[in-house]
Amino acid sequence: MGDVTVVTGGTGFVGAAVIRRLAAAGHHVRALARPSSDRRLLADLPVEITDGDLTDVASLGRLLKGCGQLFHVAAFYSLWARDRRVFYDINVEGTRRILRAAADAGVSRVVYTSTVGALGIPPGGGAGTEETPVGLTDMVGDYKRSKFLAEEVAREFSRQGLPLVIVNPSTPVGPGDIKPTPTGQMIVDFLRGRMWAYLPTGLNLVDVNDVAAGHLLAAERGRVGERYILGGKNLTLREIFELLGRITGIRPPRLKVSAGLILPLARLSEWIADHLTGRPPMIPVDAVRMAQKTMFFDCRKAVRELGLPQSLVEDALAQAVRWFQENGYAPTP
Fold first, then answer.
1. What's the rounded Cα separation, in Å, for the pair 242 and 49?
2. Which helix (H) or strand (E) holds 236?
3. Which residues pair with 106 in a beta bridge?
4. Domain of 211: which CATH number?
5. CA end-to-end span of the chain, whole Å?
């Protein structure tokens, strides 16, 4: 067994948080990073970096040499891409490549980062769990479909003997949302005064540092083949904006609009992105379609079996606001 802990996706929001937690625990960490990737989040961390990506099988072999544990966090997380095939090449086939390489290398533990987006939501409302029935036809958009299929790949490797645990983060918030994620972009838009209305939906928010802790706990205590929701607090979108309003002094939007009203605008925005600008649309269609369901989840299994911490989401939002302001994403008050 090797003594190196490998992380894919380490230059991103969740991956960098996982690396920070691993480094603090004394692990020798090796991260996979594309040569063109923004590595600011790793600048002050004791981490060995291997150039490569999930489409380059040779780089994966180099990455996993001497590896004892693998945290496969990398994914293409977006609600739009001009070429939709990128979701499946990275999220599905990239997962297949890295897990095959991990099996060949004899890695002793794998934690695969899925998403609550691949889980079911009770048809009558309420919070989804790891066991809520769901199928591919329930997935809205290419991101969720690709992550659902990637989780199927991970489960198949587990059935074949790879010692793998699945974690399903809900909606992480906090410092370091460098891209930013769709949720981070929503916070940035709020800070810039661009949120004029809200949809009647909801999310489960969780501190990104709790998500990172949950990864290490899954490696240590998780049952092979099981999945664990790494979540925090269920909040409506209006409640999230009200929290941001209290943190920042910015007045939250009061106008509630239906998804049906916004969908034509989203389709126009996406047509412009697809055919004219090539830049992400102002309103992704998948974001509006997802908002038609309230995405609440129950993380009690991870709390009970892993000891998942439950930090105050309000504090994580405040840290996110401060990080976005200090790093030039939004004006400093």
1. 40
2. strand 233-236
3. none
4. 3.40.50.720
5. 51
Tell me whether residue 136 is exposed, middle or buried, using C-beta atoms within 10 angstroms of its C-beta: 0 to 12, 13 to 18, 19 or more.
exposed
Q: Name which of 136, 182, 145, 184 is nearest 284 in CA terms.
A: 182
Q: Provide the pLDDT for residue 2.
A: 62
Structure tokens at 316: 């994580």
- Which of the 8 DSSP states describes residue 92? I
Instruction: Write out the DSSP string of 111-139.
Output: EEE--GGGS---TTSS-B-TTS---GGG-
Each residue of 129-151: pLDDT tens digit? 999 999 999 999 999 999 999 99
Q: Count, in order, helices (H) and strands (E) of the chain.
A: 12, 10
Residue-wise pLDDT for 77-106, tens only, equals 887 778 889 999 999 999 999 999 999 999
The total number of structural domains in the chain stands at 1
pLDDT reported for residue 291: 80
